[in-house]
Structure formats: C-alpha cells, structure tokens
Specification:
The structure is a homodimer of 198-residue chains. Chain A has nine helices and no strands. Chain A starts with 11 loop residues before the first helix and ends with a helix. The first copy, chain A, has a domain of 138 residues: Tetracycline Repressor, domain 2 (Orthogonal Bundle), CATH 1.10.357. Chain A is mainly alpha-helical. Helix content of chain A is 67%, strand content 0%. In chain A, helix 1 packs across helix 3, helix 7 crosses helix 8 and helix 8 packs antiparallel against helix 9. The interface between A and B is large, with 37 and 38 residues. The structure holds a DNA duplex (18 and 18 nucleotides).
Chain lengths: 198, 198
DNA sequence: GTCTATATCTAGATAGAC
DNA sequence: GTCTATCTAGATATAGAC
C-alpha cells in the first residue's frame, strides 16, 4: 500500500470508495465517518479527496450506490445458494445482509441514509431501486397476495437482519464473542419464522 | 425553562440527564452525542456539566442506567396490558421498545453501548441486568425448554424491535411518513411471528 | 492531481474568577 | 455551582504551489 508521503494513486476515486468501506467497517457509522480519516488511510493529503468529490456527501453517495449494487448481488447469490423454496430464499437474504454489513460496514443505514435523500445521483438511485426490487421479487415469490404485503414482508425481513447487525456492531454480543456466521444463522432462522404465518 | 444567561438550576444533574434524552431523540445516536450541545439546550455553559459528571462517558452511563430502568418499566406495563397469553406478552415488549426509543432516543445501542462496558457504575449494572431479567422472564413464560433458548428468543425479539426502530430513526420509512404506532404494531406482529414455531 | 498551508467550526476538558 | 476564557484536537473545505 505504500502509505508514505507523496505516493500517487492510479485511481484515487475508486480507492477512496474502497477505503470508505473499510472506514465504515471500523464502526461509528455515518456520524463518525470522516473524509480526513479516509484520506489518511490511503496515505494522501486531506485535500486530495476534494479533487474527486465536491464534498463529504457526494463521496458517501458513491459509497451508498456501490453498497446497494454489491449487496443486491450478495443477496441474489445467497438466494440461489439456498435452493428453490421461496421462503428459504428470502430468509437467506437476511443472512447475506448480516454477513455483508459485518464485512463492509455499509448497510441500510448507509444505503438509504436520510442525509443522502436530496443527492441528485442517478446511478445511486437506480442501484437502490434495484436492490429493493431484488428483495420484493423474493418476497412476492413466497406467495404474498398483494404488493403491499410483499413490501411489509421485505421490511420485516430487513428489520430483523438489520437489528441483529446493528446490535452486533454496537457490541451487544461482544461479551459472548459470537461469530458473524452464528449471527447470520440466527437472522436467517428468525427471518424464516416471519413467514410461517401470513 | 428560561434559557437566558446566568440562570441557576435547582438540580442540574437531573436536568442534564433529561436533556441528554432529548438530545439523543433528535438523532445521530451516540457518535453525535455531545456534552456541549446538552449544556446549550439547558442554557448553561459548556463547563457546567463537568461539575456533575467527570466526563462524557459518565454522563452517558447515567443516561444508560435511567433508560434501562424506564424501559424495563415500559415493557412490564405493556406486557401486563397485553393480557395473559405469554406469547402476546413478549410480543408486546417489542412494540413497547419501539415506542420508548422513538420517544427518548435511548435504545439498546445506548443502554448496552460498548464504550460503556468499562464504566464502574453499579447502579447502571443493576438496572441493565434487571432489564434483561424482565425480558428473560417473559421469554421463559412462553415455554422455552432451556435458558439458552430463552436467551436466543429474547435476542431475536430485541433484534426485530431494534431493527424497526433503527431503520425508522435513520429515515428509512421517512418518505411514506409512517407513524410510530404503526411501526410499533409491525414490530409486535413480527415478534409474535417469531414464536409460532420453536 | 496531489501537496502544503490555512480559515473556520465544533467538541472535550481544565483553570481560575465570582 | 456556575461562569468566562482557554488549550487541544479533529473535521470540512478552500487557495495556491508544484
């Protein structure tokens, strides 16, 4: 990585996005996220990022879009690996979410962050919509009688996955030192239970 | 409240804790929590809080203890209001959690925050333990065959409640402007579903 | 395209006046 | 017990050198 002074990146823009994930994964969430810390992580000056992003929010927007894209792919892959039962496939999305966020730090609190709502970034909008579509398709396949119910099933699945993830990140399970895979398994089981009735 | 300069509080210590809840309720969570902002809210100098708490962490510890105490009471009340069915009683705890955190901003991410683990505050420890006992008793009453399973049922219930709450606070439901009570109802329904099998 | 240097802001925490 | 004033530290963002 050569964190020495004066190193020139080939593609600092891409490196900033990648380093932002690492920064988020270290905890503190959006409020603690700092452009300066990301720059330090790459060994460049704190001014360098502003050549590629006009401000902190635009960098976060790019991170949000990348996360939506990657998460949708991770969820689709997990669903396919889960087999053909629609309920198992949606439940697998919850597990995939836990693993993805534990690895990258970028969950729904980043992807759909309120402070990014006003951002005019079409790429990001498309990717967040595609992520939602991926989830809605999985929910619809379980036999939801209406679109409204599919939405609420997705929200419930997201809530349980995000809840486990959030508690894990906040150190709630820290004393017992439970592994990410164990938490992911519990989230999957809980999400599966949501579909046993209604 | 008389936010003018020079006002002397009768009990600034208690006022600081109460104002901290209001501060947390405005969003941003622990990372954004600032002693200076709490002082400003009460119209006192930024130095005043340090007469009552040695540092930011000790103030947060007091808030954590108060929240654990109040939340346990809110959960117990909601369980009693839910009737005699053990599953309904535990599910009601999830709804009570959503309403409590929407009102105060102090959920498990504050009560069990990792940065407070090292704090030697016996009052807080007693209250967080009592909160956990309240939840474990509700879970055990549903017929959990073992202590381990009661713990995991509590964790799942907490996860779903915290997930809804966290997404709500992060603005995930903001566009649809869903009310707190509606979110609480969904959390209750989802928690109830967790108990239909196993 | 990255650097150094800087202006402005906010926070945590302390010293000493009253 | 609270205030004013101050120190330190870290952040956002900009200006101008190379």
């Amino acid at each position: 990585m050569s964190a020495d002074r004066g190193y020139h990146h080939g593609d600092l823009r891409a490196a900033l996005i990648e380093a932002s994930f690492a920064q988020l994964a270290e905890g503190g969430g959006l409020p603690r996220f700092s452009v300066a810390a990301v720059a330090r992580r790459l060994g460049v000056s704190t001014a360098a990022p502003y050549r590629h992003f006009p401000d902190r929010t635009h960098l976060l927007g790019a991170v949000s879009g990348a996360a939506a894209h990657d998460l949708a792919a991770a969820i689709a892959a997990a669903a396919d690996a889960a087999g053909t039962d629609p309920a198992d496939r949606l439940a697998a999305a919850a597990g995939a979410y836990v693993r993805y966020v534990a690895r990258t730090g970028a969950g729904f609190h980043v992807i759909y962050a309120g402070e990014l709502h006003a951002l005019p970034d079409e790429t990001r909008r498309d990717r967040t919509r595609a992520l939602m579509t991926t989830l809605l398709d999985l929910a619809a396949a379980t036999g939801c009688p209406s679109y409204q119910e599919a939405v609420q099933l997705v929200e419930a699945t997201i809530a349980v996955a995000h809840g486990y993830t959030s508690l894990y990140a906040d150190g709630f399970f820290a004393r017992k030192s439970i592994s990410v895979d164990a938490i992911a398994a519990r989230a999957t089981t809980a999400a599966r239970a949501l579909m046993t009735v209604d």
